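User: Fe-S metabolism associated SufE, Mycolicibacterium chitae:
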Amino acid sequence: MSMPAPLAEVVSDFTEVEGQDKLRLLLEFAEELPPLPADLEEAAMEPVPECQSPLFLHVDAADPEHVRLFFSAPPEAPTTRGFAGILATGLDGQTKVDILAVPDDFYTELGLAALISPLRLRGMSAMLARIKRRLR
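Assistant: Predicted structure for Fe-S metabolism associated SufE:
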């Protein structure tokens, strides 16, 4: 599976824990989601309606060697924020080529399917699909 090193490390972190510890790790990513820069407003970001909770993203590919990803999700949506935090940690600052090479279903390696509904997992898939669409 082709993944940038930071994303591979996130996947590895999830594979090393079991059961409820996976949910705790997801919540850590939710808490660590970086705030938006002062010059970026949620209204200017792309909504991801496939997510169960409101989520907005912005892809800055002005430098294809250092793509910037920004996410906004409310604190009361920890699963959605966690997914965004995983993508921010694993893909922000990576190259356009490396991001486009990430398998669309990489999130299955996290082992969350038994803990989170398929509908919620689809939100992670939708976020990655929208990022890739912007990069193409």
